[in-house]
């Protein structure tokens, strides 16, 4: 049987955890809002920016193919193809057949796409530098072990 004191501690833990989660989500939302606005100022949609970032940031061992990008962006294959079509039409990305497997189409950024992404990445790094202390505090609050964690019955 739980005492009143233990029940109070458990309630306090739940409240503190929720506050920590709410603060974390707030900071993430501030960053996402910044990112959306920065992409729009650069003439891109958020999805175009994310596509370009995933192409440029693909590890050497991973080819930036439609399948790879669909997984990284959590989109369906056909949605990524449409997004690539729009980016290719505006001169941001280019398709190239893989010399080892002609069935594979590999994406790369064009020089224009590279310049835009580089500028956006600098802006994002500055914003993350500003938000980092609060983001780290909120993550620590969420992941720190509780002094009195709730018991499982």
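^ structure tokens above, recovered residues below v
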């Amino acid at each position: 049987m739980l005492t009143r004191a233990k029940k109070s501690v458990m309630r306090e833990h739940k409240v503190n955890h929720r506050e920590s989660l709410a603060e974390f989500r707030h900071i993430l939302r501030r960053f996402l809002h910044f990112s959306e606005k920065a992409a729009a100022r650069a003439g891109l949609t958020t999805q175009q920016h994310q596509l370009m970032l995933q192409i440029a940031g693909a590890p050497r061992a991973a080819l930036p193919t439609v399948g790879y990008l669909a997984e990284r962006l959590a989109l369906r294959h056909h949605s990524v193809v449409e997004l690539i079509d729009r980016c290719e039409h505006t001169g941001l990305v280019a398709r190239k057949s893989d010399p080892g497997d002609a069935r594979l189409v590999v994406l790369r950024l064009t020089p224009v796409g590279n310049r835009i992404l580089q500028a956006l990445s600098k802006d994002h790094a500055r914003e993350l530098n500003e938000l980092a202390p609060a983001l780290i505090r909120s993550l620590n609050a969420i992941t720190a072990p509780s002094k009195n964690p709730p018991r499982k019955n």
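The radius of gyration is 22 Å.
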